[in-house]
Design brief:
With 356 residues, this protein is α/β, with parallel strands linked by helices. It has 13 helices and nine strands. It has an eight-stranded parallel beta barrel with strand order 1-2-3-4-5-6-8-9, surrounded by five helices. The relative contact order is 0.16. The structure holds ligand 9MR. The site of ligand 9MR has 10 residues, from loops.
Length: 356
Amino acid sequence: MLSRRDTLKGGACGLAALSGLFAPAPLVARVNDPVGFGAAVRPPLLESDADYANAIRKYCSIVVPEGGLIWNDLRPDRATFDFAAADRVAAFAMNSGLRLRGHTLVWYGVMPSWTESLTSLSLAQDELLKHIDTVVSRYRSRIDSWIVVNEPLADDAAAFDDLRPTIWQRAIGIDHLAMAFEAAHAADPAAKLFINEYDVEYTGARFRSRRKALTALIRFLLDRNVPVHGVGLQAHLRGNLTIDVEGLQQFAAEMKALGLKIAITELDVIDNKLPADSAERDRQAAQRAQTLLAALSDGASLDSVLTWGITDKYTWVPTYFKRADGLKNRPLPLDENYAPKPLMQTIAQFCTVPGI
Ligand code: 9MR
C-alpha cells in the first residue's frame, strides 16, 4: 500500500504556488532522501477545531503530540497509564495517513509529583523500564520515531556528563540514558530513536559549549553501542540571536560521520525582539529558518523538519516570550487564519510539504 508520503509531490515543485505571494528566496539543493515535514499537534484541538485538523492534514506528513505522551499526561499516578489523549492523536494520524512520532520518554519537564518517591536505584530503574516498555509497545508499528531523551544537558553544560538532575539521573546516574534507549529499542526494534536538545543553534560560548557537550554525549552513547539513531535539534529560533552557521555545519558533518540523521524537532521563531511590521517580521523569521536549514543540509542528512505547532493561533511562544508592544507573536508557518507565511515557503525548499 502506498503511504501518503510516497505519493507526495516534491516541495520545490510547489513553490510556484507561493511565488506570487512572497519575495523569491534562493533555491537550495535538496538532499537525496525526501525530508518529511510535520508539526506538533494539541490533542483536543483535533476534535474542537476543524480548520486546525484540516491544516494539519493539508501540510503535514508527520505529527507528534504536543502533550499526551509525556509522563504527566500518561501517568497521573503510579498504577495508571492513561492513553486517551495519545490514542486520539494516533487515530487521527492513522485515519489521515500521517506518520507519527512519540514525545517523550525521558524529560525533566512536567513530571508527575509521585515520581519524586523513586529514590532508589531499583525503584527508579524498574519504573523507567516498565514505563518505556508499556508505552513503546502499545504504539509499536504506529509510532515510527521516538524522542527518547529530551533536553538531557544542564543549562550550562560543558561536558557530556553535565546532565540535569532528574529523578533518573539522581537515582540511576548517566546509565539511565542507555537504559532508556535500549528499552525503547527492545520494545520496537523498527522505531528510529532520537536524543533531542535545545540551545545549541547559536553563536556564543554557552551555545558552543552545549553543542560540544551534546556531541560528546552522543559519542559516549554510540561508543557503548546504545541504539541512538538520530539527533533532534529543537530549533526554537530566537530572533535576537545569531545562528552559528559554521558551528552547525561542523556539527552536521560530525553527525554524518557517526551515521546519525538530524531532525529539526520543534522549529518556530521566537519573534518578541523582531520588528513590529508583520511582513518584515515574517521575512526575518523565514530568513532565520533558511540559515539554519541551509547550514544543516550542507553536510548532513536531514531526517525531517517538524514545527512546534502549525498556526500562530496556537503556540507556546507567548507563554514565555510575549512582545512588549502587545502585538501577537507570529512564530509558525501558518498565520492565525491558516494562510501560509514565508516560513512555510522556506521549509518547502528543504522538505516535501504536502499542500505546497
Ligand atoms: O509546548 C509544550 C507545552 O504545551 C507544555 O505545556 C510544556 C510543558 O512545559 O511543554 C511544551 O513543550 C516544549 C516547549 O514548548 C519548549 N521546548 C521544549 C518543550 C518540549 O520538548
